[in-house]
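Design a sequence for this backbone.
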């Protein structure tokens, strides 16, 4: 099993849930193109 950082794991979990459930949304401050301060939401907009 590959080792992930906490931020990478959060990002993968968000990607997975958003791909499998169209009702999942991410709300919050600093969620956008740059992925936030820790870049946990990078790529979710696509």
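Sequence:
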């Amino acid at each position: 099993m590959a080792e992930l950082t906490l931020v990478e794991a959060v990002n993968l979990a968000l990607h997975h849930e958003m791909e499998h459930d169209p009702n999942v949304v991410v709300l919050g401050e600093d969620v956008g193109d740059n992925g936030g301060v820790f870049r946990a939401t990078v790529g979710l907009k696509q």
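The CA atoms of residues 17 and 24 lie 7 Å apart.
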